[in-house]
Predict the 3D structure of the following.
Amino acid sequence: MVITLPDGTEKTFPAGITGLDIAASIGRKLAEAALGIIVDGRLQDLGTPITRNAGVSIVTFDSPDGKEIFWHSSSHLMAQAIEELFPGAKFGAGPAIEQGFYYDVAYPERFNEDDLRNIEAKMLEISGRDIAIRREEMPREQAIGYFRESRKDPYKVEILEETLKGVETVSVYHQDGFADLCSGPHLPNTGKIRAVLLTNISASYWRGDSSRESMQRIYGVTFPSDKLLKEHVARLEEARRRDHRKLGAELGLFMLTPEVGSGLPIWLPKGAIIRNELETFLKGEQRKRGYVPVYTPHIGNIELYKRSGHYPYYSDSQFPPLTYKDETGREEQYLLKPMNCPHHHLIYSSDLRSYRDLPIRLTEFGTVYRHEQSGELNGLVRARGFTQDDSHIYCRPDQLVDEICNAIDLTRFVFNTLGFDEVETRLSLHDPANQAKYGGTAEVWEQAEKDVKEAADRMGIKYFIGIGEASFYGPKIDFIVRDAIGRKWQLGTVQVDYVMPERFDLSYIGSDGQKHRPVVIHRAPFGSMERFIGVLIEHTAGNFPLWLAPVQVTVLPIAEDVHDYAREVYAKLQAAGIRAEIDLRSEKIGKKIREAELSKIPVMLVIGRNEQEAREVSVRRHRKGDEGRLGVQEIVARLSEEIAQRA
RNA sequence: GCUGAUGUAGCUCAGUCGGUAGAGCACUUCCUUGGUAAGGAAGAGGUCAUCGGUUCAAGUCCGAUCAUCAGCUCCA
């Protein structure tokens, strides 16, 4: 029997050999690190006998597959520990996730922190017993009996009876007295799991259904060594350090207060500078690309949203309507606007449009209000009042793909400028199985999705498909970045819409003199200014590039006798339009520098007697240190240039 | 919205068994005039989230509300 390894080398083995044997034949270390094996593209247990010629690769913790196996087995290990410590606990679902695993547990008592520590200790103890993990296949009917009678776990029985209805044979993994219904694969033994951290407990509904019983979901992460766990903990601490809510307060960027309302961020002067710079940047870029600015009110007649179809779709996540009654008893209802599109559509149809006028690109930083569920609110990244860098492009069908490409190009330009280089792109398509969720006809959707794909392919972007992620009026291209804690956030978006033009009866006069229907593109490179800046804060850890820094330069005189010269330098910076501060306190230079470093000011200009005599400044860059002396004109010119370049 | 946790000075946090509130940093004033990440001294700062209850007495115990955090569910 011939086994082909990933590097192309071929080895001959007797039939029935296992992955572990193959790993051992390559090296002792690999045998130790091996967690599973991929045989002809299929991930399986290390102990599964291989009976014919195959291409194999050994899976270790370094690969995503390896982590998946490791953490999935860890969830079983945790379940076993819980079962030993808390007899009677029943188990729901326990998968591996991106950063570890969880298990949903039904148990009458609430678990607390101490319980977690005890479970951790028990897991390590079980790991120390180095129990073999054994796979057993059995007919589904037999498994139902097993889980009902022996394991007494109603949740597994439910999975067997419903989710796995059509399946003949299922697999059960055993380790000591513990057994779990699971397709696998799993680790060969529990001993591989050497470091355990249970991170938190939360509630979850059985099968994600809020009408079903609530279970306790215990999250954890495990590693093959303590060293890896320590690194993981260090990453978590770094994430906490970068949390935009913490940095936003420390750096005086924004605030949230119940006196205004939850989820309603207030921009403080320093945060407003960042937002204003970003807006100025995008406005300038859009001007170059043929967008025209408009302004629209913050509320709109409710009829507008009924017409657009937003109201019925999203009435539960809107602030309740404002009702106005005049003396005659006539009633009008207004909605705090949850999106800008309807206003823009009315601007479009306020005039007769010729095919020669298209595309028309209306743009506005439009503030919208959505009553997000209280549990969803999260600093700037999930707020109830936020501002979209919203534009609507009205174009002819023959211009559509070009216009989508332009919007993608702008979005990419924005992300590159801001230093987001790891952006995932999702083509968000509709779910054909759930057509009722969407507006428009099947043909229109087919066309729209074809156009979106064509544009994405032409722009050469790498994307993945998200079925059911489309909005109700059309497919989208979504740009997704991760925050410091690894959570994903959708920022920019480009959306195609054939539905709104119908609803608002938008038209243009074609070359044939007849009325035609334009197509609308909704696009927002930043998405929401609040969310974008929230993610930007975490991305930069508050160390903003010079052009965005709320305070760009601080002038630090060493002693009082150079205050006059320091003021002169400060005045020159201000005159050049550089955001500068001056620290005239009677503190030592070390303290002034420390405070400037902590407030993450990019440039410090230290001035003492030597600098005064030479008409120079000592330049110190944040996190870099002393960079030597420069003439005043020189430093002003260099900083101005760096700001202009948005470097 | 649901489940759980949390809420004490501007910030980070102590506060024991229920007996009228504490530290460090920041802030203010004074002294100090210094060379690349914390000079010294003094002072000021609190409706212990809010409302109600138990008690002779509540930061502490109980309940409700609000907010925040974690997760679930949702996301134009």
Remarks:
- Residues 565 and 612 of chain A are 6 Å apart (CA to CA).
- The two ends of chain A are 59 Å apart (CA to CA).
- Chain A has four domains: 2-60, 65-238, 266-298+338-540, 553-645.
- DSSP finds 20 helices and 33 strands in chain A.
